[in-house]
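so my prof wants the structure for this chain in the tokens format not the other one, which i didnt know existed until like an hour ago. anyway here's the sequence
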Amino acid sequence: MEMSVRKSRQARRAFVAALVLSAALTAAAGAAEGPKGHWTSGERLFGWCLTEVAGMTENPLCVGFVGAVADVLAENTAVSGYRVCLRGDLVTQPAVTLVARALAREWPCP
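here's what i got, hopefully its the right format
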């Protein structure tokens, strides 16, 4: 049972990471200048998520940032005007499916 809970948490993190990364990349692409009043930019988050850390399967900066935002959103609190409704059935899907789905929704092909 502990393994299935761990897999469920990992899938949820992957899903939320895809959403947050998607939003961050969109915001970063549209911004002419750096963020004002924000500690972390979309560009910085993107770099963290792509940077490998020796001896670790995930970059703790990426996972920590995304996890913190996910924790706030999970409490039905808006972040920069955005709300999410995480459904249990989504977190049971493979992470690659969740990432692909989130990116396809953000940047659909014509």
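also thought this was worth mentioning. Residues 2-31+38-106 form one domain.
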